[in-house]
Each structure stands twice: as C-alpha cells, then as structure tokens.
Design goal:
The chain is mostly beta strands. It has one domain: OB fold (Dihydrolipoamide Acetyltransferase, E2P). It contains three helices and ten strands; from the N terminus they run βββββαβββββαα. The strands form two sheets. A five-stranded mixed sheet has the order 8-1-2-10-9. The chain has a five-stranded mixed sheet with strand order 3-6-7-5-4.
Length: about 160
C-alpha cells in the first residue's frame, strides 16, 4: 500500500470511546500538570500552560464532548496539537483519559459521519473507521477546538 492510501493516527480514549488525530498534527504528548485558569473562559478551556516559552491553551475534551467528568490521574495526558487557524499555525493542548497507540488507517476504510439531528458533530469529526473491531472516531483538530479559542486567545499565544 502506498503512503497516499493510508495515514497514521494517534489514538486515545475518553471513557469507553476511542478517538484519533492525524499523527502529523501531534506536536507533543505530556503527562497531566496543573494549568493556570483564565477568568471568564469557556467551560472546556481549563486554562493555559507555559511550554518552553509558548503559552498554550488547554482544553478538556470530556467537557467539550459533554461527557461525565473524571479525576485527572497518572494516566491523564495532554496532547499538544498543531493547529491551522486564520492567524496562522498555533498550538493547543487537549486533555484525554489516556493515549493508546499509533495506527495505520487505510483511507478507503474511513467512512463519513452519519447525519444527526441537534448539535452537528460532523464539524469536527473527519470520519469513522474500525481498528481491531473497535470504532475509531477521527477528529479534525482545527475544528475541534475552534469554538473554544477566540482570536484574542490565539494572538496572545503568539506573543
């Protein structure tokens, strides 16, 4: 199979569900560490971290996906993603329950998101596939955090 026919995806879990993001968008994986809260920020924006001089917003995906909250523990991980925004390339961290593996996904096995009424998750879901008999929800990192990050927060990060 050629590299055009597949892509590598970092998989992680939130509760019982498994999600994935393109490995080329992952800048860093780090253990949980406390963040600095930002007053009056959206509920899913936990705060910011200073990563080697860059101020990086940290988003709790459990809150973003309206899942039950869970205690942060030794398995809790922050995945730092490289985002393409209207202001250029930025970084953002997402908190997940744990990181699972990097898997190769054949492009022909990725299915579109079915239409759903109510909140349309298809804005941040690229597709759905199966890995080892388990559903894998592929996320679009740019759209995933777009509503949580205001242009002001993104430009502050660049400073």
């Amino acid at each position: 199979m050629t590299s055009r026919g597949s892509r590598q995806v970092l998989t992680f879990s939130l509760g019982r569900e498994v999600y994935g993001v393109d490995i080329l968008r992952v800048k860093e994986i780090r253990g949980w560490s406390p963040v600095t809260r930002i007053p009056q920020s959206p509920g899913s924006l936990l705060g910011v971290l200073n990563l080697r001089g860059a101020i990086v917003p940290i988003i709790d995906l459990r809150v973003r996906f309206a899942l039950a909250s869970a205690e942060f523990n030794a398995m809790t991980v922050i995945i730092v993603l490289s985002l393409q925004t209207g202001q250029g390339q930025r970084e953002c961290g997402v908190v997940v329950d744990n990181v699972k593996d990097v898997v190769d996904i054949a492009l022909e096995n990725i299915r579109p998101v079915p239409s759903m009424s109510g909140n349309d998750a298809s804005e941040f879901i690229e597709g759905i596939t199966t890995v080892d008999d388990q559903m894998l929800i592929l996320l679009n990192p740019d759209e995933l955090v777009a509503r949580d990050l205001t242009p002001a927060a993104l430009s502050d990060q660049a400073a």
